[in-house]
Cyclic nucleotide-binding domain-containing protein
Amino acid sequence: MTLPDDHPLKQALQTHVALPEEDWTLMAAIWTRTTARRKEIITRAGDVERYLYFVEEGVQRVFYTDEQAREATIVFTYAPSFGGVLDSLLMQRPSRYFYETLTPSVFLRTPFAEMQRLMDTRPAISAMVRLSLNVTLSGVLERLVELQCFSSEDKFKRLLQRSPHILQLVPHKYLANYLGIDATNFSKFMNRVRI
C-alpha cells in the first residue's frame, strides 16, 4: 500500500523517533486497509493477536470478561492511534482480552511477522517501537495509580483533563466502566463537574 507522506500513520510513528525516509517507505509498504462494523469483535480472548492496527476512523475498546460475565474496559482506541491487544501481539500468546469496535471502523493493519522483520533489520524502526512501548508502559502505570488511589470524582476529572473530547466519542456506559465507577455516579459527575 502506498501512503502519502502526510498520512497520520507517519506522524504517529515519528512522534518519538524520526525515521529515515527509507525506513518510512519500508514501513508504509506493510500496511493494508480493512473495515469493521459496529460492535464487531476484532480479537477474541483465547486468540493470538496477529495484527497491529492503526485506527483511521471509529472508536474501539479492549476489554476483559470474567467468569461471571462482568466486563472491565481497559483502553479505548480511536483515530489517530494504534490498536489491538498489544501484549498478545508482542508475546504471540493467546489474548486474555477482546478488541471490539464501538462504531463502524476503518483501520490500517500490519501482520506481526512483517513488523518483527522490520524491527530485526532496521535499527531506527526497532528504536521507534521500543520507545513507543516505554511511553505506553508509563501511561499504564499512571492509569494503575488512578484506579487504585483516586476517588471516583478525581478519576472522572483526570479523564476530562487528559481527553476532554472522549465524552463525544465513547458511550458513557463504557466510560463509567473504564473508570470503574457506577453509571449513575458518572451521570452525576457529567452534570456537576466542570474542567
